[in-house]
Amino acid sequence: MPNRSVVYIDGFNFYYGAVKGTPWKWLDLQAYWERIRQDDDIRQIYYFTSQVREPSRLARQRDYLAALGTLAKVRVVEGRFRRVTLDCPIACAAVGSRRFHTHEEKQTDVAIGVQMIDDAYRDVSDRLVVVSGDADLVPAVKMVRTRFPEKQVLVYVPANDPMAEGMSQERGAATELRRAATRDYTIQPGQFAACQLPETVRTPRGPISRPAEWSN
Question: Which residues of 163-201 are buried (b: 16+ CB within 10 A; e: fewer)?
Answer without folding.
Answer: bbeeeeeeeebbbebbebbeebebbebeebeebbbeeeb
